[in-house]
Amino acid sequence: MFAVGIVAHSEEPVVKQKEFVRFDGKTFALAWENSKPDEIVKEYISDGEKLESWTKLASTREYPKFNDAMALASNLLQTLKKQNPNTPSSIVKNEKTGEVMVDFIAMSPDNSFVEFNIFKYGPRPGGGVLAQQYALRAYKDITTFLKGMKPERVRLLEIMATTGLQQGK
Question: Domain 20-168, what fold?
Answer without folding.
Answer: Protein Transport Mog1p; Chain A (3.40.1000)
